[in-house]
Amino acid sequence: MDPLRVQTAQNVDLAFATAGLGDRILAWLVDVVVVTAYVILVSLLDFGGRGGPTLLVVLVLPVLLYHLLFEVFFEGQTPGKRLLKIRVARLDGAQPTLAQYLLRWLLRWVDVTFSSGVVAVVAIGVTRHAQRLGDLAAGTTVVRLRRRVRLDEVRYRKLPADYAPAFPAAERLTDADVRTLRAVLVKLRLERRSAATNRLARRAKAAVEDRLGLAPVQMPPEQFLRTVVDDYTAAHDRYDV
Q1: How far apart are CA 149 and CA 90, in angstroms?
Q2: Residues in the chain with pLDDT < 70?
Q3: 10 Å Cβ neighbour count for 241?
Q4: Which of 208, 233, 91, 82 lies closest to 157 in space, CA to CA?
Q5: Both 55 and 83 in a single domain?
Q6: Are 25 and 95 in a shared domain?
Q7: In this structure, are 105 and 59 located in the same domain?
Q8: Which of 12, 52, 166, 235 could share a disulfide with 171, CB 3.0–4.6 Å?
């Protein structure tokens, strides 16, 4: 299963880990429990002889529209997806449109409801980005969310007054270049054991070496990228940004 990749303006791609089949099944089971509890609760209510229309509005429609409404109003997450820290995303990493959510929901009847989930399981297992039919039609998938990032992981680091740049040419980088490098560093922090993330760091290192006219530097990619960001920071007096 390939990670979902988003190409930046600086031609360094950021990878989003697609949610595995196990995570998606567990999220679905949580949603089943939520819906079941809701149905039981509503069935205990007394509608005072107005069961027909009231039952349709209070019970049937919320159950039918459960996934659509939660994903639209809660940024691609149902309670189950939120608990499992996964969400629906477009293949470019952005939040899906209403039309894409609607298409996913309509094809859910084929993927999950009428086939008891068999079609969805097979499609997720064989497609490149773990997509069920609804995802394939809508251009979406389900990705894992990263944990929260601390402020000191994303702001420019305070450097000592006598800091000496290791790579003075780093001052030629642009703000956009450095933002990309910092995004790679954050990704390394969050997904250090990911082979895809480490490949991304090596490619970013090679891209920076090429941009600055450096021979391959004998330094681990993370250390190199952090040093280049620090050198840029020192050259541009960006300590408090």
Answers
A1: 22
A2: 1-16, 46-52, 146-156, 192, 237-241
A3: 9
A4: 233
A5: yes
A6: yes
A7: yes
A8: 235
Q: How many CB atoms lie within 10 A of CB 172?
A: 12
217 residue type, one letter: V
Which of 144, 160, 177 corresponds to the end of one domain?
A: 144
Using an 8 Å Cβ cutoff, are 108 and 64 in contact?
no
Q: Quick one: 8 and 123 in the same domain?
A: yes
Any idea which residue has 């922090």 for tokens? 189
Inside any domain, residue 224: yes
Residue 60 to residue 80: CA distance in whole angstroms: 20
Token pair for 56: 């349709």
The β-bridge relationship of strands 86-90 and 140-144 is antiparallel
Mark which of 104, 126, 144 sits at the end of a domain. Answer: 144
Distance CA 16, CA 4 (A): 5
Residue 81's contacts (CB-CB under 8 Å, 6 or more residues apart) are 27, 31, 87, 88, 142
pTM (whole model) above 0.70: no
- In which domain, by residue range, is 207 found? 151-236
Same domain, 139 and 177: no
Residue 241 domain flag: no
Q: How far apart are CA 93 and CA 33, in angstroms?
A: 29
Total structural domains within the chain? 2
Query: For residue 141, how many C-alpha atoms fall within 13 Å in the half-sphere facing its CB?
Result: 26
In sequence order, the 6+-apart residues with CB closer than 8 A to the CB of 66 are 31, 35, 78
